[in-house]
Every structure is written in C-alpha cells, then in structure tokens.
Amino acid sequence: MSGPRPSVVIVDDHALFRAGVRSELEDLVDVRADAGSVEEAVATILRERPDVVLLDVNMPGGGGVEVIRKVAVELPVQRFLGLSVSDAAEDVIALIRAGARGYVTKSISGPELAEAIERVREGDAVFSPRLAGFVLDAFQGEIPEAEVDPELDLLTMREREVLRLIARGYLYKEIGLELSISPKTVEAHVSSVLRKLQLSNRHELGRWAVERRLVD
C-alpha cells in the first residue's frame, strides 16, 4: 500500500466482530472509529469522514442500506464496502444498488480486506469471487431488480428484519427486544408480511425465508 493509509470506520452490530476487525486491520489501515447501530453509524461517519466505511448489510434499524441512504443526504461521495456473513444475492444487490462500491464476506483475511479497502478508496469496485456474478447479472439486465426476488421487494427493511428473526424461531417478545420495538409492533409487521406474501401463519413465513436463504 503506497502513500497514506486509508482511513476506515467499521459498522457492525456485533461488538466482538468489530473488535476482531480492528485487530486484523490496525497495522494495515487507519481505523478511526466503529459503530454498532444505524444511528450511531451515521453520526460517526459524518463526524470522521473516512476514506471507506466497512458496512454490515443486516443490522437492526434498516441495516447497511439505511446507513448509506442517511449518509448520502449530507455526504454523497462517501465510499462504502459491504462486509457481511451473508452471500445471498438479494443482500449483495440491495447494498450495491444503495451505493456501496463493493461487497466481501467475513471469511476474508486481514491483508485481503486491507487490499479491498485500498482499491475502494481508489475508486475500484471489489467483490468476493462468487458474488461478482450476482452483481454483473443484475446490472447487465440478465436479472432485472424485480426478478432477484419480486416478493422480497414488497417488504420494507424492518419487515425483512422481523421475517429473518421469525424464521430463526424468535418469539414476538424476543424480536421486540432485539429490534427495540414493542411486541405489538412486531405483530403488526408480521401481519403486514403475511398479507404481502399471501401466507397464513408464522410457520409458513419461516419456510418461505429458509427457501430463499434469508437465514443460515
């Protein structure tokens, strides 16, 4: 890496993961700060204005897509690199369509991640090998956006978060605690998802999510 090290903010809702990434990157890039929620991330990015933001796609409060949208209001030139355990096509494409410059999975090594950060700082698009095909297909028109999953496109980001937790077996009260909303609000989201997907109950919702690889 030539010249000054790229400055980075790490955004992920798991504190242990953020600490691990810091440890991996501390001698390779300039880690300015980290954040664990959408609102904290937006405030931190606008304060630090790093070269690159490492961004998880799935977080409470709207996830990486919401972070990009909110930051873009004040800082449209900010560069983002998705870093997530998810390699689902809809997650990759959603983040890229929102404005991220690349997307890599959390299996990447520290030096490889540092190289990806440098490339994004320089304006390149960077993807883990198997993910590049999703993006090429979507943006070349072979998979129009709606065909990635037309039913999933009907759901809001919060409804997708609730759906994933339902599929993992969480109860309404547990989902409420996880997302900082009331159980009644969770129930309202579930009812909305059932109506939009034309399903009958939470068991069918869980099966629907598993079939679309929305859960591990």
- Can you tell me the CATH class of the largest domain? Alpha Beta
**SSE sequence, one letter per element:** EHEHEHEHEHEHHHHHH
Give the radius of gyration.
Answer: 18 Å
Fraction of residues in H or I helices: 40-55%
Mean pLDDT: 84
CATH superfamily of the largest domain: Response regulator
The structural class is alpha/beta
The number of E-state strands comes to 6
Task: Please outline the major beta sheet.
Answer: 6 strands, parallel
The structural domain count equals 2
How would the global form be characterised?
Answer: globular
Q: Report the portion of residues in β strands.
A: 5-15%
Termini separation comes to 35 Å
Number of helices: 11
Ranges where pLDDT stays below 50 over 5 or more residues in a row are 142-147
Strand order of the largest sheet: 2-1-3-4-5-6
List the helices and strands and how they pair.
Layout: E1 7-11, H1 15-25, E2 30-35, H2 38-48, E3 52-55, H3 63-74, E4 79-84, H4 89-98, E5 102-105, H5 110-121, E6 126-127, H6 129-139, H7 145-148, H8 157-167, H9 172-179, H10 183-197, H11 202-211
Parallel strand pairs: 1-2, 1-3, 3-4, 4-5, 5-6
Helix pairs in contact: 2-3, 4-6, 8-10, 8-11, 9-10
Question: Could you explain how this protein is built, in words?
Answer:
With 216 residues, the protein is an alpha/beta fold. It has two domains: 7-139, Response regulator (Rossmann fold, 3-Layer(aba) Sandwich); 151-211, Arc Repressor Mutant, subunit A, CATH 1.10.10. It is 53% helix and 12% strand. The protein is built from eleven helices and six strands. The protein has helices at residues 15-25, 38-48, 63-74, 89-98, 110-121, 129-139, 145-148, 157-167, 172-179, 183-197, 202-211, and strands spanning 7-11, 30-35, 52-55, 79-84, 102-105, 126-127. The chain has a six-stranded parallel beta sheet with strand order 2-1-3-4-5-6, sandwiched between helices. The longest helix is centred in the last third of the chain and has 15 residues, at 183-197. The relative contact order is 0.11. The model is unreliable at 142-147 (pLDDT under 50).
